[in-house]
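# nightly structure sweep
# worker-07 picked up a monomer target from the shared queue
# config: single-sequence mode, recycle default, output format = structure tokens
# input follows
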Amino acid sequence: MARFSRSDFTLESFRRQLANVDALPQLCVLGLVSGLITGALMVVFRLLLSAGALLYMPEGNPEAFESLAPWGRAALPFLAVGLIGVLLYRQKVAARKLGVAHVIERLTYHQGRFPLRNWLNQWWVGVVAVLGGLSAGREGPAIHLGAAASSGLGQRMRLPNNSLRVLVACGTAAGISASFNTPIAGVIFAMEVVMMEYTMMSFMPVILASMMGALVAQVVYGNQPAFHIPDVALGSLMNLPWVVITGLVVGLLAGGFIHLSRLQRFQQWPLWGRLGIVALITGVAAFWFPEVQGIGYDSVAAALNNQLTVQVLLALIAVKLVVTALTVAGGVPIGIIGPVLVVGAATGALSGLLGDWVWGAKAADPGIYAMLGMAAMMGAVLQAPLAALMALLELTHTPGIMLPGMLAVVVACLTSRQLTGCEGFFISSVRYGLHPLQQPLMQALSRVSVPAVMERHLVRTSRMITPDQARRLLENNPIWLVIERSSSDKPVLGLKAAALARWMIEHDESSSDNASNEGLIDLLEIPGERLEMAPIALQATLSEAFLTLQNDALDALYVVHGNRPKQQRISGIITRGAIERYYHYSDPRDNDSSHKEP
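# output follows
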């Protein structure tokens, strides 16, 4: 197992240890640092929201849209959409990708490496979207900012890519934890929604990161739960059928939200037409129902405490759902988790009021149903039932709600998945097979970097060498000869050193010493199997190596080390057989704890 060593504690040794699947102590250290950084960033982001609100919001409250004049709050979305359209959409397409979907994309296809421009854009877009009165949450920006900052730390230290993947999960968990004061839900969200696997090597550093993010936020904002609710209980089991009906309705709403947010016809409209419609429908809705604007945590708190009228509940269910979905479909990058919780809470509260009318004295308090609706909507939209249940527990501090909560969340998730055909908001459905992050082979190979498997015993040589040079090459008993050719367009070849040794023995026996020493040996002509090789970076994971071998129809890769192309050195060779041996013969206790066994 990889352990810290006093005598060999250098950055280079730290990188080598992280390349292995069992680098748990090293990953835990990174998790703590990641949580500290992300927690601090979340405090800064929330302070930016508060500072911006001081300019025009009563008492500097970022959610006090109800206190603004109707025309003023209706005009804010036009200003916000205009700023985003002018400042964001003048940039390249790649720079406009923000939020949780961007985090999953970078983790899936770019080994958790994030562009700096997107990270900088997320700061101001997140602030403008919330303060500009759009139906937007702060969780999406929190996850992006935390994951990218944590990954950036690993990139600056040139850590192997398998550890960058864990750092992305750490930043995600700490971002959720610091935003909601929900450390357990942060861990489950990171593993269930972003990483899509559960492994011991990932769990511990992510737990530490989430804990540290929550601690940093609690130092500044205190350790009170996000919502204060009265002490209520489900009461009679006669409420369970109504819980099922509530979950069914929430599941249908979740499916409708996802389909509406992916409305192809609307996405094909010209840019300014889409942005204009988003501003118009948000402004009109805000004129009559300011509760649809912003994150909406004040509306959630009011729903939990039975303080909203039926008219407002209907507006939050229908109008906020449609406005949020069309904002996403229109191309405005917003966080959707906050608005989803608001719609779920309103749906549950309205269901509770109807239950009170149907069941009378046996009906549970509508606040109970508001809690259940909040968790059910989050679980159904994200297809993350466990994360939703943990969020329900930590947001409300009501353990007794877990039993009906499990029922409501499962019914809502099944309804959204089976009846509306939705696979989850952040994961696009793959017609054949699984999403790349859900493939067991890719999961297993992504946990290890190439230094853990590569063959390090090699020597570099040119094609033509003298017998004396050949003997010197073989002095240190290398496994591989890396044959570099003068033309840059010809591939590097790998030859087993044993083939050269065998040739030398045969020709030493059949030739005189003079003939042997004077002639040149052509390493492309001696008997032996020569493998065409392509380069791969030292930080790469085995999944990257495997895909490179598959796509280029190669049998081996040579591992390059160094930042500058002219100063790169070859550190090792990794073959297809070495990857297969690792996958088939590695300790199953290290690899079979993901969602699906390899």
